[in-house]
Amino acid sequence: GIVLVAINPYEQLPIYEQDVIYAYSGQNMGDMDPHIFAVAEEAYKQMARDEKNQSIIVSGESGAGKTVSAKYAMRFFTTVGGSASETNIEAKVLASSPIMEAIGNAKTTRNDNSSRFGKYIQIGFDKRYHIIGANMRTYLLEKSRVVFQAEEERNYHIFYQLCASTGLPEFKDLGLSK
Question: Which sites bind ATP (predicted)?
Fold first, then answer.
């Protein structure tokens, strides 16, 4: 399959705007510069042409920008699929992100907010190739982090958030202490 290597510049670049989505929409792979939108367009085109499910695998090290790349691919699908303004699927799929980050993100030596989750996002399209829904499954990558952290690292954020909230009345029954 197609492989795209992306590097996280750790700053916003003007290469993910709406006009760039439209520039890649309908183009053949290789006619434009390598881009997450080119990969998304190829998957979208093959889905429509072959009427078969397609997969985009986003992989990389901690802090590489995997979640951001997945968001850009979803933004592309919602725009070209004609549903960005109707249902805002991207926002709905990612609405659970802050909660998931609290439970599944931790401080590592390379990233203060490193996701320790793997994510599988399934996007459903209708016969006209418009997005009709999405489902995100997550799985915990590092169960060992619950009981052990390397020097300079932290456990999952949720434990620190719970301990910081010990004075709140809604947490009284949990028996938490500082």
Answer: 60-67
